[in-house]
Amino acid sequence: MNRLLPLVLAATALTAGASQALAQEPAAGRQCFRVSQMDGHRVADPRTLYVGVRNKEVFRIDMHGACLAGANMGDPLVIETTGGTDLVCRPIDLDLKVAGTIGLSPCIVKSITKLTPPQIVSLPPKLKP
Q1: What is the pLDDT of residues 72-86, one digit of tens each?
Q2: What is the CB neighbour count within 10 angstroms for residue 86?
Q3: Count of Cβ atoms closer than 10 Å to residue 115 Cβ
Q4: Could you tell me if residue 11 is inside a domain?
Q5: Which of 78, 107, 104 is nearest to 91 (CA)?
Q6: Does a structural domain hold residue 27?
Q7: Which pTM value belongs to this model?
Q8: Residue 114's domain spans which residues?
Q9: Angstrom distance (rounded) from CA 79 to CA 21
Q10: How many structural domains does the chain have?
């Protein structure tokens, strides 16, 4: 039994290393962005936020509740990510709060969708981040 312990520890270390490497880069086909590359946002309605990334990509972030109801266009976002990286690929990767006049309003992210170029063009000017 004691001979198996080093093998179990080695396998655990390999699995942990592989998991960390996967968390650093998006999987093929995933629509991800880095929080550090965000360059603007617009509140569309109480449940919808548009985020600009690197001056060319736009992501639509839908919330479970109306956490953006009291938010103004200029209210700052308080964003934290999980997993030790600023890469956002899934709703669980993003801890989002809006800093408004009444304090921090937490949001539960329902979905994150990267808009296509035609969808970005069709956005009204007031909603383009």
Answers
A1: 767 788 888 877 789
A2: 15
A3: 16
A4: no
A5: 107
A6: no
A7: 0.74
A8: 33-127
A9: 23
A10: 1
Q: Report, in this order, helix, strand and coil percent for the chain, each rounded to 5.
A: 30, 35, 35
Residue 15 lies in a domain: no
Q: How confident is the model over 31-72, as pLDDT tens digits?
A: 899 999 999 899 999 999 999 999 789 999 999 999 888 777
CA-wise closest residue to 60 among 69, 52, 68, 50: 50
- Has residue 9 been placed in a domain? no
Please state, in angstroms and rounded to a whole number, the distance separating the CA atoms of residues 89 and 92: 8
Q: How far apart are CA 115 and CA 122, in angstroms?
A: 10
Burial of 10: CB neighbours in 10 Å, binned 0-12, 13-18, 19+: exposed
Phi (first) and psi of residue 86, to 5 degrees: -95, 15
